[in-house]
Structure formats: structure tokens, C-alpha cells
Write a structure and sequence with these properties.
about 160 residues; mainly alpha; 2 domains; 6 helices; elongated
């Protein structure tokens, strides 16, 4: 599973960079000089503003729909254990000797319990239900883009814009 996380982070960075850089370059090339700055601003607004707003809202709905009650209950239990840890940590600040050692061990045991509850909560989530629809959507958009996108300037034999 760890390799999937690393691969996802690496691919996300590459895809993110290529998507935005390519969009900026294409917009710069396709937009008339008089409105180039506005076109760049509109692209940023649609992708980093409006697009992220919609994406975050949809992601929240998807996560909620795929998170069972068992996950909520396990997270609540982990929160209660966290409060116990906080309380013992406050006591530990004033403790010395054997009492400090005992509290340290109790905190470590509770931390293990809290971590176990958090892991169990994550295992209950329907991750396929969260990730499969956007992956399919991205694939459909890729296919549509490949089939429908036409670079009009290239078809008309227009020379690429020269750097100023």
C-alpha cells in the first residue's frame, strides 16, 4: 500500500504541474494579445477557484456517502481516548519519579489504542466508492478531450506565436 501512496503523490505532482502549465501555455497562445491577461485570469479562476470549490463540495458528499456509522463511532472513541491522553499529559507535567514513569507508560498504551481505533475507522471506509467515480470521470474527460479537441490554428496553417 505504501508504494501506492508514493506513486499517487508523485503522479499528482506531475499531473498537476503539466495540467496547469499546459493550460497556461495554450491560453497564452490561443488568446488574442488584447485579452491574454484576462484569459489567463479566467483560466486560473475556473481551475483553482471555481473548480476547486465544486470539487471540494463533491468530495465531501462522496466521502460522507461512503463513510459508515462504524467509522464515525470509532473516530468518536479515538477522540475520547485522546482526551484521556491530554488529561494524563497534564498530570505528567507535574509528576516526578515513579508516578511520571507510570503516567508515561499509560499515555503510550493509550496512544497505541487511539492509533488502533483510527486505523480501524479508516478500514471501514468504502475507499473504492470514494475514488472510483472521479477516476472514471477523469478517464471519460481524457477520451473526450482526445476525440474532440482540435487546435484550430494548426489546421489553418497559422504560424505559432513568436516570443516577444
Amino acid at each position: 500500500v505504501a508504494w501506492m501512496i508514493y506513486a499517487g503523490v508523485i503522479l499528482h505532482g506531475i499531473c498537476y504541474d503539466f495540467f496547469f502549465v499546459t493550460g497556461q501555455l495554450y491560453t497564452d497562445r490561443a488568446a488574442p494579445k488584447k485579452i491574454r491577461a484576462q484569459a489567463q485570469g479566467m483560466l486560473v479562476f475556473f481551475t483553482l477557484g471555481f473548480g476547486m470549490l465544486i470539487g471540494a463540495q463533491i468530495a465531501g458528499v462522496m466521502e460522507e456517502a461512503n463513510t459508515p456509522q462504524a467509522t464515525v463511532e470509532l473516530n468518536d472513541q479515538a477522540g475520547e481516548v485522546g482526551k484521556q491522553i491530554d488529561s494524563l499529559s497534564d498530570q505528567l507535567a507535574a509528576a516526578t519519579g515513579d508516578e511520571a514513569e507510570s503516567l508515561t507508560q499509560e499515555i503510550a498504551d493509550l496512544q497505541k489504542k487511539k492509533d488502533g481505533l483510527a486505523i480501524d475507522a479508516l478500514r471501514e471506509v468504502n475507499w473504492k466508492g470514494i475514488w472510483l467515480p472521479p477516476a472514471i470521470g477523469a478517464g471519460v474527460i481524457l477520451v473526450l478531450f482526445g476525440l474532440l479537441f482540435k487546435d484550430v490554428r494548426k489546421q489553418e496553417g497559422v504560424e505559432p506565436m513568436k516570443a516577444e
